[in-house]
Amino acid sequence: MLGCCLAIFAYAQPQGGAGRLTQAPILDGKIRSDTVWANLVPLSGFTQVQPSEGLAASEQTDIFVGFTQDMLYVGIVCYDTNPDRIIVSNSRRDADLSIEDSIQFVIDPYQGEQDGFLFGTNAAGIEFDAQLKSTHTARFRETGFDQNWDAVWDVATHRGPFGWSAEFAIPFKSLRYGTGKEQDWNFNFQRIIRHKNEIAYWSPIPVQFSLNRLSLAGEVTGIEVPSFRNLKLTPYVLSKTARGGVTEADEDDSEFGVDVKYSLTSSLTLDLTYNTDFAQVEVDQQQVNLDRFSLFFPEKRPFFLENAGQFSVGVPGQTELFFSRRIGIGPSGEQLPIDAGVRLSGKIGDSTNIGLLHMRSEAVRGVAPVTDFSVLRIKEEFENRSSLGLMMVNKDSDLGDNQTYALDGQLGVGEKTLISAFVAKTETSGIKDDDHAFRVGAGRDGESWTFNGAYEEVGDGFNPEVGFLARKGYRNVTLFGSRRIRFGQKSPFLEMVPHVNYQGYWDFDGYYESGRVHLDHSMIWKSGAQIHAAVNFTHEGIKTPFEIARGVVVDAGEYDHEELSVFSWTDSSDPLNVGMNFVYGGFFGGDRFSASPFVNYRVGETFSARFSLNHNDVKLPNGDFKVNLSQLRLSYSFTPKISIQAFVQHNDRDDLLATNLRFSWLQSANSGLFIVYNETDDDRRSPGRPRREFIIKYSHIFDV
Length: 704
Description:
24-stranded antiparallel beta barrel, mainly beta, 2 helices, 45 strands
């Protein structure tokens, strides 16, 4: 095992060249018969990371990188000696490519090793894209994918006796890059041969890392880029009808709005939005809260998701110093109209990241006044994943103003170690003390051993009103350690990963509020099946009683318990695959049994269904209760750009049934025709008066 890993580190990062194409290829995926590609030298020589780390890939993959005046072309030929076994699972944009035969590649135009672009497809020709941006994670700071970024580009695929091939046509206008006519960019390519459960890279990557490790990418030289000013207009028209609900207010409305994207330079973009609307966005996935802390619901609105990593400081889902869902969404989840907004984001030079965002939401009587939100973010990147940044956030309304100030940074030590930290302060009328927060963490990812830890402190008066805090007024210690053990080529097992995690929270009086020791043993088969068995030792210190369910109160006191947890699922590439999460143990002086089964079913690449159930049976000293949250997702894709989806949720604790139906006919990126139907049956707040909404929205991108 150690020998394989050392061998990977001994490999030089590969290098290849791009070539100017005499004419644009016919975008049909048929690379081998198109003479346009004939004069280019292919990039090849992929190396496995799974199942046999360090060995050459079992199948040949040829990569061709070419360009014309306005377009970057990437041609990929994936040879396969068993083409009838190629697995195609999805035909929806941005669907999960990990469960099927696929190709993905990253581009780092600045060669800064911290941000870039991801593109991918499967044999069905879906479009998958994402941005790579350094963002905080719960463990430590590392580069992550923002899958919600959508660019304008095209791909076509072809299948034959040789295997399958794909042609990507990516406008230079959809990318960001530095100055200079001829440039060298970093690339890496990942191929998944799913019927062999094989993952291979063009530029070898050790097992503890993934495609997002830009510092291990190879280099493609000789790319000639244009100088341009990119202007895109995306107007929309919308018609909406709504009936019933809590207020029984009827609503008939027609709206018009527009988004404008203008590239000031090849690396700096100005975005403007007027009368911003997000009617096409899928509804939130409901959650069950069996504690006293806030639940986190991720951002889904496209305008806020683009370049979101540039504004990220903190720990996602725990301590986010800027959280865009505070803009245009009321305290009870109601949508607030957004008048307009502006965002400036990108790079100045090759290493200075800048982000500026200003938004204004309209007043809604009884809910919120007119409110202005502003964010300034500057970050300087250094070698080896290191950076130093600052952020300022401001909220201004008739109810008062609020500011957040933060400094953050990270330091890469070698290829495996990363140290990160942030310190922040807020200013709020009436709050003068304990308005600080800071965190310092470090992690080391080795071939076999992984360790990380962090210390965090959030004051009682820390109040980022345009951020997210799961809790406040605490000191937190987090520790994690794991061991990766790989099996031989003949074993049906890929690896096992025993690991231990500890999290502890204390208030500023030294009171032990929460603690959890997690002892886990994970076993992963080469087929993709997994099982995770864990024992948890938990502690909860309750100073103030709280209502956990209707009529059931958890008394003040200290509660120490043990619980057993088992999480497993079968091979996700199978048309029918199932899984189960099972938890049983002590809970606030009583017992809890939790079972969360799920079933996925797929017919080819066109139809998929997923049913999941979260069942909790809780028995406490002050009463017993049960909670069932069931969810059903259905999706049918007529083509990679035309699909219909249904999402139905039922929460029996709140007597709530929510239905979301969406038809989308995409033209490019996130524009096109959307037809949306929402129905919410809330038998607690509006019995017999379901809220029904019907929305038609059309948007189109004009490339001026």
